Amino acid sequence: MKKCYFPIFMGLLMMAIGFSFQACSKKQVKTEEGGAGKMKKEGIVEIGYSGAMQTIYFEFDKYTLSDEAREILKENAQWLKSKKSIKVQVEGHCDNRGSEEYNLALGQKRAESVRKYLLDLGVAASRLTTLSYGEEKPLDKIDAEEAWSKNRRAEFIITDT
């Protein structure tokens, strides 16, 4: 009888160890929405959050910066200059109109446009990286102009403090 229980015990022990390693390795994702079990990104100076940096919005099929976007970026640059050790990823996003390839390219152009302007404002290039999500991470999934305008954006994520 003892030999019959030993393999079962060892199997359960190995499963428990595997689950504990899996739980330790999972990275918690911090979301933008408030609500039950979710935290706001704004104001938190920590990897995965945006700190005090504000989101930039774009017109349909454009990657040029509006006057409003430039003013927001001036504030973001001042904040970044006051936090000299922080590194940031500029993430470009699009609405769901257009092909996946086109939107990935447009999202990259948006992120690069924001990065270039921050460089012009004196933020060091070594502190800024870019990434395009294209249409992969919409804030609003409804097919209407109000939703699309929220999705055409560049966001800032702290990658190092």
Describe the structure.
The protein is α+β, with helices and mostly antiparallel strands and 161 residues long. The protein has a domain at 56-160: 60s Ribosomal Protein L30, Chain: A (2-Layer Sandwich). Helices cover 42% and strands 15% of the residues. It is built from 4 helices and 4 strands. It has helices spanning 2-25, 67-82, 100-120, 145-151; strands spanning 56-57, 87-93, 128-134, 153-160. It is globular, with a radius of gyration of 21 Å. The model is unreliable at 19-40 (pLDDT under 50).
Brief rundown of the structure:
By secondary structure, the chain is of the alpha+beta class. It contains 4 helices and 4 strands.
List the helices and strands and how they pair.
Layout: H1 2-25, E1 56-57, H2 67-82, E2 87-93, H3 100-120, E3 128-134, H4 145-151, E4 153-160
Parallel strand pairs: 2-3
Antiparallel strand pairs: 1-4, 2-4
